[in-house]
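Justification of computing resources. Each target in the renewal requires a structure prediction run like the one illustrated here; the chain below, 464 residues long, is used simply to show the kind of job we budget for.
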Amino acid sequence: MLPMVALVGRPNVGKSTVFNALTRSRDALVADQPGVTRDRQFGVCRLLDQPFMVIDTGGLSDETEALAVLTSKQSLQAIEQADVIALVMDAREGLLAYDHQIVAHARKSGKPLLLLVNKTDGLDTQTAMAEFSVLGLQPAFAVAASHRRGFDPVLKAIEERLPAPVEEAESEIEPDRLRLAIVGRPNVGKSTLVNRLLGEERVIASDVPGTTRDVIAVDLEREGRKYRLLDTAGIRRRARVEEAVEKFSVLKTLQAIESAQVVVCLLDAREGVTDQDATVLGQVLESGRGLVVALNKWDGLDEYQRGQCKADVDRKLAFVGYAEVLTLSAKHGSGLKGLFKAVHKTFESATRAFTTSELTRAVEAAYQALQPPVVRGHVAKLRYAHPGGSNPPTIVIHGNRVGSLPVSYKRYLENFMRKRFGLVGTPLRLEFRSGTNPYEGKKNELTDKQVKQRKRLMRHVKKR
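Resulting structure tokens:
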């Protein structure tokens, strides 16, 4: 379970801009007017060794309008759910009366508090911060979220206040049990698939979208292998997510993706690939987990519809082209053997252990087959490589001028590694590191013999 940091404050103080800066995204809508954000927005910050969830909230205000009351209620619920609260305030507007009430309410929660004074670009930082010192909040930071400035000390303070990762009870730790999450839009058949795999009506399956609200973990043994199935709530478009319960269901689904080793993304073959499906796949891609795409309800399509569906998948899912795509029917149980085969191949690829020698030989082979293009008269050189982690597999490549490698060549290296090692269903991360110049900062000292020769040469030049 990822810890949560809530961004709280008045309307139009820049909470959504701070959210985008922490998550390195543009998921939160930003505009120079109050009240743009109404519902909670969830995202993952991966700028620290320990990732954490960021909750963007609507502004807290004392207005009595119905919509403003509902927005404030959403923010108060986020305060209750969060592990750390970041109070965002506007340096240009200064400290207002309602800011004191927000601070008082946040203090009642007993959670660790941070003060972020936003919009300090172009202002005298010390003067801007002095006005907010009366709140007595420490630590306090001056940031310019629109320019993503001042966030390094903020991240350090958050890291110090995040709770330690919750370890599973020893009785639940089973290294040989594969954690398999079933995700997708509402009503694509996730719960039906889980029931079919278990051979019993373990979870409620209904034609009504949104039946599953929480993440349900069920253990399964099949053909001598152990699994932990995670049946998740369907992820819908944010515009349709209205109930507070469903919003936290989506949050738990994102956390289930983070905790899984392999994710099965279930699509409805009758509808093809929708925008919501792409959103779900984007979350899995960002998490770096192994991915299997399953087209459900395949038995109800004729040959023409199947051809159209496959063409739609090939066109729209090119950004996760490494994932295996298979067809099944959760209702009738067809295609399950192929599903488990794909899951095993994906898991083995995602957790494969590499050696430095085999990775270095692969890099040398790739370099000899195709050298990088010339950039400003120089060609990047790749020296050696070593493993940097698993799930997803990470390869660290050392060399000279690797910063000049174009995206196309990095993609070539990724595809070369996939083909050479037979990686299926898992993202592959390549990290490039430049070697340091051993002569940097050193002065070439002349020997006594060279000094004498230089003096003799200078005398000879003067005589001429």
